Amino acid sequence: QVQLVESGGGLVQPGGSVRLSCVASGMIFSENIMYWYRQAPGKQREVVAVISTAGSSTNYADSVKGRFTISRDNAKNTVYLQMNDLKPDDAGVYYCRSGSYPDWGQGTQVTVSS
Fold it and tell me: For residues 64 and 49, what is the distance between their CA atoms, to the nearest angstrom?
């Protein structure tokens, strides 16, 4: 059974930074493309970033390009999302997900407010 455990969210001031982590189990992590999604209140869940199995290729939603960085450590079964220059529109619950499995974790809340 695939399990995804996100962490690292919290209250951040506009312009601030936060690093999210997601530890995966129940799958061969290094063989899975990994995504970060976010869901803002009243909005659909959207893809924020994606990373290839080896970490050599990444892609981002236009709204976060140049501010967010996705990375992974296959030895630790962990994918990260470094979020810089945060804006109020970045607030929401952030989730990681494998490209091969339908499972979701519980997410981690990011609040951007002064």
Answer: 8
Separation of alpha carbons 45 and 38, rounded Å: 6
Which residues does residue 96 pair with via DSSP β-bridges, in sequence order?
36
Which DSSP state fits 74? G
Specify the amino acid at residue 44: Q
Q: What is the pLDDT along the chain (114 residues), one digit of tens a residue?
A: 999 999 999 999 999 999 999 999 999 999 999 999 999 989 999 999 999 999 999 999 999 999 999 999 999 999 999 999 999 999 999 999 999 999 999 999 999 999
d(CA 29, CA 104): 15
